[in-house]
Amino acid sequence: MSTSPEFIEFVCEQIRDCGTVRYRKMFGEYMVYVNEKPILLVCDNIVYVKKLSDIAELMRDAECAVPYQGAKEHYILDIENNVLTREVITVLEAVTPVPKPRKKKQS
Fold first, then answer.
1. What is the reported pTM?
2. Cα–Cα nearest to 37, from 105, 102, 2, 89
3. Residue 74: which H helix or E strand, with range?
4. Closest CA relative to residue 82, chosen from 29, 21, 16, 36
5. Which of 43, 50, 53, 57 could form a disulfide with 67 if both were Cys (CB 3.0 to 4.6 A apart)?
């Protein structure tokens, strides 16, 4: 099962006040960016956040799982918990760098 378009739109709506929000389809699932920083991974209608020490205390009661085969374990974020979601995104947005642009392959 992959993430439905309705669910990814719901996720983005939940965090619209956290900054500039956009999503990108990757490998059949989605990466959600806040202020151009990759913050949330959405796979199979589940919202994941990277396990970082900066949010360990906030996420201490969260379930953990692997979002896709070969990935490291992530926290599962309850996107409907508005207070927790905003706190987690605020911390992650502050510590996550903007990805460097990829160089285009020359032919």
1. 0.90
2. 89
3. strand 74-76
4. 16
5. 43
